[in-house]
């Protein structure tokens, strides 16, 4: 299975991955009204999806050589400021990579201003690939 083949759900979030390794994942989302809550701002679930996806991808790539993948066991995403539209950058990097678990930090920033929009930390469990 190709870890960059995303589900319909992840594709709907608009996350576009431009770099993916076991130590760094980079991408962006072009936000628009399709990402809005009924109140006209981007839904926090968009950011949580980006955080979980980027961390899971990087963590899985880090253990792929061992025929493992990584699954999120805890995701804590903070929503820092509301936005309505525009491109946001997503960058994920590991804080810790161990034999059984990993901890990744993911930042979401406005491309135009560099201001933080959201920040997430994901704890992942390394598991053997299913047969």
Describe the secondary-structure layout:
Layout: H1 8-13, E1 16-20, E2 25-31, H2 44-63, E3 68-79, E4 86-97, E5 101-110, E6 116-128
Antiparallel strand pairs: 1-2, 2-4, 3-6, 4-5, 5-6
Describe what you observe in this structure:
Helices cover 20% and strands 45% of the residues. The longest helix has 20 residues, at 44-63. The chain is elongated and about 45 Å long. 32% of the residues are buried. A hairpin with a 4-residue loop joins strand 1 and strand 2 (25-31). It has 131 residues and is an alpha+beta fold. It has helices at residues 8-13, 44-63, and strands at 16-20, 25-31, 68-79, 86-97, 101-110, 116-128.
The end-to-end span amounts to 11 Å
* Overall radius of gyration: 14 Å
Question: Largest beta sheet: what is the strand line-up?
Answer: 1-2-4-5-6-3
How much is the average pLDDT? 95
As a percent range, the share of helical residues equals 10-25%
Report the sheet with the most strands, covering strand number, pairing sense and barrel closure: 6 strands, antiparallel
List segments where confidence is low: pLDDT < 50 over at least 5 consecutive residues. none
Which structural class matches the secondary elements? alpha+beta
* % residues in beta strands: over 45%
Which outline best applies?
elongated
List the total number of helices: 2
Give the helices and strands as they follow along the chain.
Answer: HEEHEEEE
> What is the strand tally?
6
Organism: Antrihabitans stalagmiti
Keywords: Hydrolase
InterPro entries: HotDog_dom_sf, PAAI_dom, Thioestr_dom
Protein name: PaaI family thioesterase
């Amino acid at each position: 299975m190709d870890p960059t083949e995303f589900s319909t759900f992840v594709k709907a979030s608009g996350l576009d991955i431009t770099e993916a390794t076991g130590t760094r994942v980079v991408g962006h989302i072009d936000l628009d009204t399709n990402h809005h809550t009924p109140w006209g701002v981007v839904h926090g679930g968009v950011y949580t999806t980006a955080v979980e996806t980027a961390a899971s991808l990087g963590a899985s790539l880090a253990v792929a050589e061992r025929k493992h993948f990584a699954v999120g066991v805890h995701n804590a995403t903070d929503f820092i400021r509301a936005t309505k539209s525009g491109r946001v950058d997503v960058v994920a990097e590991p804080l810790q990579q161990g034999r059984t678990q990993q901890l990744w930090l993911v930042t979401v920033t406005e491309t135009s201003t560099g201001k933080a929009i959201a920040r997430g930390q994901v704890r992942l469990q390394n598991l053997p690939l299913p047969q």
